[in-house]
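Forwarding the complex inputs:
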Amino acid sequence: MISALRLSALLLALLTLAGLAQAEEIASGSTFLSPEMRRQQDDPNRNPAWFWVDQGEGLFARKPASGEACLGCHADPVASLRGAATRYPQVEEASGKLLNLEGRIEQCRTERQHAPAFGYESAELLSLTAYVASLSRGLPMSVRADGPARPFYEAGKAFFERRQGQLNLSCQQCHDGLVGQKLRGDTISHGAGTGYPAYRLEWNTVGSLHRRLRACSLGVRATQFDYGSPEYLALELYLADRAKGLPVETPALRR
Amino acid sequence: MLVALLAALAAQAATLEPYRVAADAIPDPLGGLVGVAARGAALVKDRERGNCLICHHGEDPTEPFQGAIGPPLSGVGSRLSAGQIRLRLVDMSRLDPATVMPPYYRTENLSDVAEAYRGQPALTAQEIEDVVSYLATLRTE
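Prediction (whole assembly, two chains):
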């Protein structure tokens, strides 16, 4: 008789295989880095993004003026929050809202710590997001796109496939049709986004996935939606679902 | 008064020169304008205006990071007539609805255009003619 443990190990192996099969179609952003940038990214002493992760770890343990530290609710985060980032964005059952990792952290901050929100793209929120995401490094993305998440997924997919902006290009034309090709100095990837928040040389700092999306929108001279807007949240869910099975790579280094 | 003036300007900006398509070409210059090749050469490189080298290899080998998505521009003047080049710049999607080449002289049927560019073609009629006359001079592969 197969023990329950053996069975779950077997299931895990099968799931990993399924993940790999899907990951074959889509590669992570790091795959497209030059070998030198890849080495720099993979060396924590040379990838500046780790500074934000360290800051985030500090903030995680710090008690705000009111309420508990994050650590007060999430003891032993290396174990308890391992894998959390692989499941975002996700629909929050109570409100029916789609939350990404930034949104969840802000919610803990305002509702549980009773402290003012940090604000999207603040150094604090970027650091905490990078720290929490880093706890899932190497684990496969596994968001849910079914049930209550379905309408968000559909909206994100429609956004991805729609031509937009004065230059009339869709995300899909570049990140499906032109993968591996040179757009100026960049090599176009699948747009998996699994390394964010990431340090981008062009920004000289760490930025969120939504900041990257704003750059792509601007590139085709299309409307840039707000940080945390419903449009980019739905798009983020679609990208995360496309990237299912790919490992979380936060904090990544990008051009 | 100011509002009316701005509205008039906006309406003016949105009117494009009409053009006639014959086979796969727009044979006549837009608005009867005469292009200046030197200005066209600058527009092709200019990252704010034409920004063509994001996708194409141009003639100047010293220009860093040229794109490789569309065909190289060298020799385009011997492959295509001025009228054929004009149509490909104005609206390549007339020839290939799935094309990646952006429409540089079109304001219709675009979605979510950023406010700063709304109602404007990516290049003016004069700029299209400048680029056409420059590309027509690129005769060696």
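The radius of gyration of chain B is 16 Å.
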